[in-house]
Amino acid sequence: MSRGNTMLKEEKVFKDPVHRYIHVRDQLIWDLIGTKEFQRLRRVRQLGTTFLTFHGAEHTRFNHSLGVYEIMRRMIEVFKGRPHWNEEDRLLCLATALLHDIGHGPFSHSFEKVFDTDHESWTRAIIMGKTEVNAVLRRMGDEFPREVSEVIEKTHPNKLVVSMISSQIDADRMDYLQRDAFYTGVSYGHFDMERILRVMRPLDDQVVIKSTGMHAVEDYIMSRYQMYWQVYFHPVTRSAEVILNKILRRAKYLYLNGFTFKQFPMHLQPFFDGDISIADYLKLDEMIIFYYFQVWEEEQDEILADLCGRFLHRRLFQYVEFNQHFIMNEWAGLQERFKAIGVDPDYYLVIDFSSDLPYDFYRPGEEEERMPIHLLMNDRKLRELSRQSDVVEAISGKKRTDHKLYYPSDILHTPGQENEKREILEILSG
Amino acid sequence: MLDQHVNVLSLLQTVGEITGRKKFQKIVFISKKLGMPFHEKYDFHRYGPYSEELNLRLEELQQFEFISEIKEEMAGYHQYRYQVATNGEHFLKTKGNNRETFEQQKNVIQEMNVCSSKFLELTATILFLEPANQEEIIRKVHVLKKTQNYSKADIEHAYAHIERWRQHLNKVKLPSEGRVSSSFDG
């Protein structure tokens, strides 16, 4: 489909530290990048609170989205002229790759939990609503925004296109693993993407990998596994996330209970009321959130002020491993002891769970939900990756979970009520 | 504390037993869409709406020994049966006694539980595709769920169920969504 699109007179390039250059040749893509909704992504970090653990992790949804677009563009170059690939889907793929995260807000994870929103719904709303993005997409036809939205929602009938942006080996993951590794400075996220791109093939309703590329895919799966446990679930990052979540809950609680803020949080009012328009949503970015945190650090409410100070100045919660014994035997006592020393356990005693399933495949009759990675063998037959790779087989279907209990260690070491605090520390140390 | 875990546990206690992971997933999704207090995030997957978060929640509840998952060998596949374990009952009594127990939504949830998972997959898919109009939804159901071969009668049946469940729940007071939870929420 090229209706409504022209090629730029001169190719535009973005210098990118991960992919070297990002190439834009289509007017449609150039115009989408120029919309205010896409430019807002410059003000939303890709990794939320991770910058408090890895100080380099300041990259944004903007450069990740450009990266996903670039990988998709390269994937399409490999697919061009091959059976099963329809060149008419090119712009649908490119626009989807670019816009797949357009609905992310600041610190999406915490926001979604506290305000019961969902960035994918906002992505669809921004694409389908009265926005600059929608106006640019509509130049391709009235149905084009809906098609882009359906690919992101995974309800588009063209499953090949859906799998290029969301599957166990897709353009989105290939960008964020490399980008997050680069900006955090860790060595785990690296794999040979050039090799993977060279061996990717379109086939009916999925992307498959030539069997000769199996080792590059093994590397990719393992690097994903490492990134989850070393970066994404890092306990310090989780601690920051826990505090962020509690700040938003406290602010919402205060608002709903008629608290008079020194500086009324007008940008958050629609979220507190649960009546959010697209315009309200797009006004939020991390700059606004940090502004309120700075203001709230001076608020009368001690809990809100303390939590904001902790987040801004990185005075995070300490943690211990949490287990079933704890929940059945110690939990109620621990909460009571926190109350006795004047610390509200609702805000200062938090259980956090992390879980990851590095790779999975369908099992007949069960509701396993992940589209497996298929290798294209020399005899043109398909084999599921874990049947062929011992490395992948070893981690297939193996979910790893981690439970931690977060608490403010500093409070437990201040003078006053020493006996009660000692008891708490004894329980926490098991 | 652990509000979302308590909700899943309470739902299971309300129906006694749920057979099949798919059925569990769809019952929670449909309940959520009907306004019950579930906050698990759902995406559209191979069998319709599916939540990795709920999957994790069930795993945690097993690790805490609050629910039991019994794996049964069927002809050519496995099936999972879920029940509240003794620890879970104890937990609900001591920690969850001020929580919603879905007493008023009981009939609706029980009715879902006796439906087949194939029918719940259809119902959940329809709810996922809302607010599109009925004609559009039916067209998409036929495209997305081609292998399930849902008939016109199946689809009418699903819409009738949704309507009846909505009407029933409109008559009962749903839990307040404005309440600030004290639970884990990460």
TrEMBL record, chain A:
InterPro entries attached to this UniProt entry: dGTPase-like (IPR050135), HD/PDEase_dom (IPR003607), HD_assoc_2 (IPR045509), HD_domain (IPR006674)
Xref: PROSITE patterns: HD (PS51831)
Entries under SUPFAM superfamilies matching the protein: HD-domain/PDEase-like
Gene Ontology molecular functions: dGTPase activity
Annotated CDD domains: HDc
BP term (GO), one: dGTP catabolic process
Domain HD: 61-177
Superkingdom, taxonomy of origin: Bacteria
PANTHER family named among the record's database cross-references: DEOXYNUCLEOSIDE TRIPHOSPHATE TRIPHOSPHOHYDROLASE, DEOXYNUCLEOSIDE TRIPHOSPHATE TRIPHOSPHOHYDROLASE SAMHD1
Protein name listed in UniProt: HD domain-containing protein
Organism: Salicibibacter cibi
Automatic annotation (TrEMBL), chain B:
Superkingdom of this protein's organism: Bacteria
Protein name: YwgA family protein
Native organism: Salicibibacter cibi
